[in-house]
Amino acid sequence: MTASQITLGTPRLRRPQLALCNAQCVAAPWELSAGKLRRLDGDHRWEVVICQRVKLWITQDNDPLDYLVGAGEVFVITQPGRVVIEALAAATVQIAPLLRTTLRDTSEEIIFA
Question: What is the pTM for the complete model shown?
Fold first, then answer.
């Protein structure tokens, strides 16, 4: 049998197993009426604003852009200072610390398919 007759299949590396951990408690969701504002003062960098329902308008100090965040989307606060969140309609919002990720090394695991 020659080398050209041996078929092992295409080697694929397994994707690393992604383990998510959250070091702090996630705040309970809160309702924000249409047109109402919620202001966060202080340093909230690396916290996430989770829009669970409808759409939010978000602006943060030291950032020239404003952001529209839809239902099921998240916004990561990247600047220190004031963050203003406005509901474009009655919304459900949650603030949480950014999740840290830990990867398990699976580089040795090769699968032949």
Answer: 0.65
C-alpha neighbours within 13 Å on the C-beta side of residue 97: 10
Report angle CA 35, 66, 76 to the nearest 5 degrees: 100
Helix count and strand count (H, E) for the chain:
0, 12
Domain ranges of the chain: 36-100
94-111 per-position pLDDT tens digit: 998 876 544 445 555 555
For the beta sheet containing 37-40, the strands, ordered from the edge strand earlier in sequence to the opposite edge, are 37-40, 83-87, 55-60, 66-70
Give the tokens for residue 33: 């009426």
Q: Are 11 and 110 in contact (CB under 8 A)?
A: yes
CATH topology for the 36-100 domain = Jelly Rolls (2.60.120)
